[in-house]
Amino acid sequence: MRTFETDRLALRGWEAADADFAFDLYSRWEVQRYIGREPKVMTDPAQAVALIERLRGHEHPVHGYWVVVERETGAQVGTVLLKAIPASVGVERDDTEIGWHFHPDAWGHGYATEAAAIVLRHALDSGIDEVVAVTAPDNVASQGVCLRLGMHAHGLSDRYYDVTCALYSTRA
């Protein structure tokens, strides 16, 4: 998996040693409340270990799941993903999604925009024609990240995940 660096951040693949961070991140309601049709928090550290094993098993020449680390401190602050997005039942799509989940302590520092921008550039430079992002309709913070990334807002859509989401996209 490719790694990336910005002035402040390093993006790398998940490692077994990231389990404590993954559990801390995904056991927080303020992080999970916008993820999935029926959001739920992790309640057992073994769930974080299983998640990392699943993410590490993902092989794709462009897609990936990256841990975002502050270069200065070495602290994990979040994650960025680039993956095939599941279309809703009855919808035939073959699209690529970009997404991010950041620890509340890292909110408000521009990390999501900075990390997602380098992954988005990687996707477009690697030949992916279009990248989409979906957010819960009331997830104003992630919608702001989409706009700062230069993505175009398409309103509400039920095209993905069998749920109504705010849809954003950008093309190469």
Task: Quickly describe the structure.
The chain is α+β, with helices and mostly antiparallel strands and 172 residues long.
Blueprint of the fold:
Elements: E1 4-5, E2 9-13, H1 19-26, H2 29-32, H3 45-56, E3 64-70, E4 76-84, E5 96-102, H4 111-125, E6 130-135, H5 140-148, E7 152-157, E8 165-171
Parallel strand pairs: 5-6
Antiparallel strand pairs: 1-2, 2-3, 3-4, 4-5, 6-8, 7-8
Helix pairs in contact: 1-3
Give me some keywords for this one.
single chain; alpha+beta; Aminopeptidase; 8-stranded mixed β-sheet; 5 helices
Report on the architecture of this protein:
This protein has helices at residues 19-26, 29-32, 45-56, 111-125, 140-148, and strands at residues 4-5, 9-13, 64-70, 76-84, 96-102, 130-135, 152-157, 165-171. It has a single domain (4-171), classed as Aminopeptidase (3-Layer(aba) Sandwich). A hairpin with a 7-residue loop joins strand 7 and strand 8 (165-171). Helix 1 (19-26) crosses helix 3. It is of the alpha+beta class and 172 residues long.
